[in-house]
Design a protein that fits this description.
Blueprint lengths: L6 E2 L4 E3 L4 E3 L7 E3 L14 E5 L3 H8 L4 E4 L5 E3 L2 E7 L7 E7 L2 E5 L21 E6 L11 H17 L3 E5 L5 H8 L7 E3 L1 H10 L9 E2 L6 H4 L3 E4 L7 H4 L4 E6 L6 H6 L4 E3 L7 H11 L3 E7 L1 H10 L3 E4 L14 H4 L4
Parallel strand pairs: 3-4, 4-5, 5-6, 10-11, 11-18, 12-15, 12-16, 13-14, 13-15, 16-17, 18-19
Antiparallel strand pairs: 1-2, 2-3, 7-8, 8-9, 9-10
Length: 341
């Protein structure tokens, strides 16, 4: 039986012909990395290869690592296997990995979305035979509203809170979601304050892309300064001692999980905005169709349901287990949320 070009092992996705791993979750000699989220770029590899804009991000998170950067579309050969990075549209610096060997082409998406968010390089469909896709939101119930409408709602919510003399606290993951929120907030309404973990990442992103002016919240910041303005913080800051000095405030979260009211209720959030850096159901199907692939491997998310549907409509589809967590991966620890508390 012919050995697959990419196989799923206990260390990660492995290309035996090149002796290299894609987004491995255990330490390996050589790792090709799709993006900077913690479930895809882990500490301990001897050598990292990634898109060049992802280098400052993973160095910020992992420290002084041995890393090489590539451009989108730039081919590089490892043991006669050809690799290249292509835009994933997930967050800044995110990529799909194209793997070609002996007239066979596979594409590993990492995490991705097909809507152009205006801050990262938009998703680019790549022709292939086998497509490894996430399906974090692989249920028909997930159907995203265009982000322009979502940001209109967010800015109107901020304006209303300001009219009522309250501080708006908006939770979004430190890497990716926070910067997307910042990019589209209406700064004519007021000032944008940030949690320390968010601001630390902003400093890294500002070396890659432009962001609006933000003000770091410190111990010296008075709640009177925050009234009427907006605060961007990681989800883990909710309920912490850091947030108590901001009374009176109104909270909101921006996430694909806000589709379900129960998720907002469990997290004791006042308002939920459905905004994800992953594809919805239709986005996944559109991306798959545009690749021309006949074989589909679903990794993290609603894998069984999504793969079953793909088989029903004619694809050769199966699932594989990984240690990727999709939108759950950036739930920062309490320790990180208390930076600059």
């Amino acid at each position: 039986m012919k050995k697959p070009l990419l196989e799923f092992t206990n260390k990660g996705i492995y290309c035996a012909a090149a002796k290299v791993y894609l987004d491995p979750w255990k330490p390996v000699d050589k790792a090709i990395i799709t993006h900077g989220h913690s479930d895809h770029s882990r500490w301990g590899h001897k050598q990292y290869i990634t898109h060049h804009t992802n280098i400052p991000i993973i160095r910020h998170r992992l420290g002084d690592i041995n890393v090489t950067g590539k451009e989108y579309g730039e081919s590089f050969i490892i043991n006669n296997v050809k690799f290249s990075f292509h835009p994933a549209g997930h967050i800044i610096g995110s990529s799909q990995i194209r793997v070609e060997h002996k007239d066979e082409v596979w594409v590993f998406t990492g995490d991705y979305k097909i809507e152009d968010d205006g801050i990262c390089t938009p998703f680019e469909p790549i022709q292939c035979h086998t497509f490894i896709t996430e399906c974090t939101f692989g249920l028909p119930a997930f159907k995203w509203t265009p982000q322009k409408e979502v940001f209109n709602d967010i800015n109107n919510w901020w304006q209303q809170n300001q009219n009522e003399g309250k501080t708006s606290i908006l939770f979004g993951y430190t890497l990716g979601k926070a910067q997307r929120l910042l990019k589209h907030l209406d700064t004519s309404i007021g000032k944008i304050y940030t949690h320390g973990a968010v601001e630390n990442m902003n400093e890294v992103i500002r070396t890659i892309n432009t962001l609006p002016e933000t003000i770091l919240i410190t111990r010296e910041t008075k709640k009177e300064e925050l009234l009427g303005n907006i605060v961007i913080a990681p989800p883990s800051a909710h309920g912490s001692t850091w947030i108590r000095k901001m009374v009176p405030y109104v909270t909101a979260a921006a996430s694909g999980w806000m589709t379900f009211r129960g998720a907002r209720r469990r997290r004791a959030i006042d308002k939920g905005f459905v905004l994800s850096d992953h594809c919805d159901w239709q986005g996944l199907l559109t991306a798959i169709k545009e690749t021309g692939a006949t074989k589909i491997i679903s990794t993290h998310g609603y894998t069984d349901i999504f793969s079953r549907y793909l088989r029903e409509i004619g694809y050769d589809a199966r699932t594989e287990k990984t240690q990727y967590e999709g939108e759950l991966s950036e739930l920062e620890t309490k320790k990180e949320s208390e930076v600059s508390s």
